[in-house]
């Protein structure tokens, strides 16, 4: 490999940033899901609140979908560089 050739990776910096944001969203969803539960002596009906049952799983799902987008996104700069190299070599 010569010095002019660049290594082409499957992910670029933006992909890793999107994955980190998605992971942070999932962690926030898990924190929203947690809460004081019931113990053997008392029952806490707050575990069935909308935050624990509807909002938190929705936030986690959004985070997972965001991570999937981060994985599936193709780097744009690699295609642009390859296109310029082929057009310069033909001329």
Features:
91 residues; mainly alpha; 3 helices; 65% helix; rod-shaped
Quick structural gist:
The chain has 91 residues and is mostly helical. It is 65% helix and 0% strand.
- How confident overall, as mean pLDDT? 82
Global Rg: 23 Å
What is the straight-line distance between the termini? 23 Å
**Unreliably modeled segments:** none
Helical proportion?
A: 55-70%
What does the main sheet amount to?
Answer: none
Order of helices and strands: HHH
Number of helices: 3
- Tell me the strand percentage band: under 5%
Quantity of strands, as a count: 0
- So what's the overall shape? rod-shaped
Q: Which structural class should the secondary elements be placed in?
A: mainly alpha
């Amino acid at each position: 490999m010569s010095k002019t050739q660049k290594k082409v990776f499957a992910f670029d910096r933006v992909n890793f940033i999107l994955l980190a944001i998605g992971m942070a969203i999932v962690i926030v969803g898990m924190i929203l899901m947690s809460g004081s539960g019931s113990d053997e002596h008392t029952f806490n009906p707050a575990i069935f609140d909308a935050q624990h049952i509807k909002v938190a799983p929705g936030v986690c799902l959004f985070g997972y979908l965001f991570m999937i987008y981060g994985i599936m996104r193709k780097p744009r700069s690699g295609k642009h560089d390859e296109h310029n190299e082929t057009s310069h070599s033909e001329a």
